[in-house]
Amino acid sequence: MNIKNISIGVAALLIFTMMSALFTVNQTQQALVLQFGEPKRIIQDPGLAIKMPFIQDVEYYEKRVLSLIPQDAEEVILADQKRILVDAFARFRIANPLLFYQTVRNEFGARARLESIIDSSVRRVLGSETLASILTGKRNDINNNIRDEVEQSVTSLGIEIIDVRLRRADYPESTSQNIFNRMKSEREREAKEFRATGEEEAQKIRADAEKTRTVIVAEAAREAQENRGRGDSEAIDIYAESFGQDPEFFSFYRSMEAYRKSIGESQTSMVLAPDSEFFKFFKNKLGE
After folding, report:
1. What is the mean pLDDT of residues 265-285?
2. d(CA 57, CA 33)
């Protein structure tokens, strides 16, 4: 019974030892075998690997491209003394696990060192550039300069820089507000000038229209007076010609008109003698 228990214990110890000696490296990983904290070998090929049980450990690192995105933007002073808020993101990978372990140990340490290096490079490169160069096509060259400088600084960390780019380049809030206020004032001034110019043009148009209207009305009144005068003249000529053909009828017509105007609907009172010439047609139609 004791021999059986011993055999079971030995078998279990062998299985545990074998399991401790074997480890797996995934396709997205690379491994560094450590013995009492001292690196012994690097494994970059995926698959099953062996290590010395109990005295060796394995540190895994990513083979894939990693991203570094800063949480906060930094204020940078440009060569033209303008202040802007910038942040830069980076893409990198662990190229040398041994050097990476010896310098920064893990991704947390690597990100802290890399963020500091990028911040220094951004300040140094942008410190020699103007705002106009950042906002124009030169921005790609600026990104390349920052990337090259960062790449030189992180080579000793076992890191390979894939790309570094400026993600944001804005004015600080106070500066942006001042620029906005200045732009608003400028637009309001332009609007006032446009309104004043428009009002001046409107006054000119109204004055020209009023002048044209006055001329047209005066011309129309003049033509109306001329036409009325010609009409009256023609009417007088027609009356004269008509009445000249029968003087007695003309006298009768004129008397009838006088009767209509004086004693028709008028409230005017007249005092005349009955035998007055005015009433001659009251006696008979011949006025005798």
Report:
1. 60
2. 6
Alpha-carbon distances of 94 from 25, 32, 109, rounded to whole Å: 16, 12, 13
Classify 241 as helix, strand or coil.
Answer: helix
Q: Which residues pair with 86 in a beta bridge?
A: 74, 169
Lowest mean pLDDT segment, chosen from 139-148, 157-166, 222-231? 222-231
Question: Cα-Cα-Cα-Cα dihedral of 89, 92, 97, 99, to 10°?
Answer: -70
Reported confidence tier of residue 64, pLDDT bands at 50, 70, 90: very high
Spatial contact of 19 and 43, defined as CB atoms under 8 Å apart: no
CA angle 38–43–45, rounded 5-degree value: 175
Poorest-pLDDT segment among 43-52, 66-75, 259-268: 259-268
Sheet with 38-43: strands ordered across: 38-43, 29-35, 56-62
DSSP assignment letter at 126: H
Dist. CA 288–CA 280, nearest whole Å: 6
Backbone region of residue 105 per phi and psi (left: phi > 0; alpha: psi in -120 to 50; beta: other values): left
| Cα 178 from Cα 43, distance rounded (Å) | 57
Going from the N-terminus, what domains does the chain have, and what CATH number goes with each? 2-62 (no CATH), 66-176 (3.30.479.30), 246-265+272-288 (no CATH)
Please name the residue that has the structure tokens 């008979």. 284
Predicted TM-score (pTM) of this structure: 0.59
Query: What single-letter amino acid sits at 70?
Result: P
Rg from Cα positions in the chain = 56
| Helix extents (H) in the chain | 2-21, 97-103, 107-126, 131-135, 139-154, 173-244, 247-263, 280-283
Q: How far is CA 265 from CA 98, 256, 262, in A?
A: 131, 14, 8
Task: Name the residue type at position 184.
Answer: K
